[in-house]
Amino acid sequence: MKILTTIDEVRVASSDISKAGKTIGLIPTMGYLHEGHLSLFDNANEHSDITFASIFVNPTQFGPNEDYNKYPRDIDRDTELAEEHNVDYLFIPDALEMYPIGFCATMYIRNLTDKFEGQLRPGHFDGVALVVCKLFNIIRPDYAFFGQKDYQQTLVVKQMVKDLNMDTKIIVSPTIRLDSGLAMSSRNTYLSDEEKENATVLYYAMERAKDAIDNGERNRKEINAVLHKQLRSVQGIRIDYASIALANDLSEPDYFYPNEQAVILLAVYIGKTRLIDNFLITFQ
Ligand code: AMP
User: Fold this and answer.
1) If residue 97 lies in a helix (H) or strand (E), which one and from where to where?
2) Which residue's C-alpha comes closest to atom 10 of ligand 1?
3) How many angstroms separate the CA atoms of 55 and 253, rounded?
4) Residue to mutate, 35, 37, 117, ligand 1, most ligand atoms under 8 Å from C-beta
5) Which of 51, 60, 143, 181 has a beta carbon 3.0–4.6 Å from 203's, enabling a disulfide?
6) Domains and their CATH numbers in the chain
7) Is this model's pTM higher than 0.90 or not?
8) Are 143 and 171 within 8 A, CB to CB?
9) 89-91 and 2-4 beta bridge pairing
10) Gap between the Cα atoms of 112 and 101, Å rounded
């Protein structure tokens, strides 16, 4: 595995790979790798000839009071894991390489970003779109792999690729969970053992909402009530949002109809840690 830290090095590598007629699969990450990331690496190895991963804690996607400085980092361990999972190139730029002094550009994807995660974290998706656009321009991947774990992010990235005619195919992989149902996340490291236990309520609440839907519930407010009731069974939980929406545009109709694909979206604080999760459902 080759470790690259400058954009110039990446451009040379990428152009050599393309000249050799090989395809590139990119997995953008913020590091502190876990099984979720590793599943994306494995998926990329299956789909493309050369697997490129990036590790960059992207400052533009963090709000002023968020955890940019304390976001967990462990480059040595990440490097080992990436190598074990057959990553060919690991791009680890520093913040000034990506955003040199005088950097001015912004990205804004309308509509999709003004609800749920975008509403609670203003500017978050502008930063995500900006860094993903830059990585695509630098690496020129044929495929890019994202986790369903960040569902709204996958919609925003797909919209950007479509609207800006980017030549990268987006592939979304399922959320990897612990046996308890808790979705793997770098931020889980912030949780105490008790909080980890409490955090299983996210998956539990989504399962109970799914039960209600399987039993014929179609009314969005009723489904949301099931989610809120289950989540509130954990003392001290703070709910940012817990709602079911249409999966394609995150709109929130009063009722769902057969064959509609919907997504349950959750963001809650367990103690000081903010966790998100989601669950796709097709109405029968
Ligand atoms: P992050 O390092 O958190 O920015 O995540 C990098 C990529 O890994 C994103 O596409 C995430 O959606 C994906 N990812 C994070 N957690 C999981 C998970 N538990 N299962 C699958 N993919 C994940």
Assistant:
1) helix 95-98
2) 146
3) 38
4) 37
5) 181
6) 2-173 (3.40.50.620), 186-282 (3.30.1300.10)
7) yes
8) yes
9) parallel
10) 30
Residue keyed to tokens 């002094």: 101
| 122-160 residue pLDDT tens | 999 999 999 999 999 999 999 999 999 999 999 999 999
Task: Give, in order, the Cα–Cα distances in Å from 154 to each of 58, 129, 221, 248.
Answer: 17, 10, 25, 11
Q: What is the DSSP string of 90-140?
A: EE---HHHHS-TT-------TTGGGSTHHHHSTTHHHHHHHHHHHHHHHH-
Clarify whether 228 is annotated catalytic. no
Q: Which H or E run contains 268?
A: strand 261-270
Q: What is the spatial distance between Cα 25 and Cα 46, in angstroms, rounded to a whole number? A: 9
Query: Ligand 1: distance of its center to the CA of 145 in Å?
Result: 9
Q: How far is ligand 1, taken at its centre, from the CA of residue 150, in Å? A: 7
The pick from 128, 149, 178 for probing ligand 1's pocket by mutation, whose C-beta has the most ligand atoms within 8 angstroms, reads 149
Nearest to 40 by CA among 149, 151, 139: 149
40 pocket-lining for ligand 1 (C-beta < 6 Å): yes
Cross-strand partners of 280? 263
Residue 189 — pLDDT band, cuts 50, 70, 90? very high
Q: Give 74's strand partners.
A: none
Residue 150 is which amino acid? D
Supply the mean pLDDT for the chain. 98
Encoded amino acid at 12, one letter: V
| Tens of pLDDT, residues 22-49 | 999 999 999 999 999 999 999 999 999 9
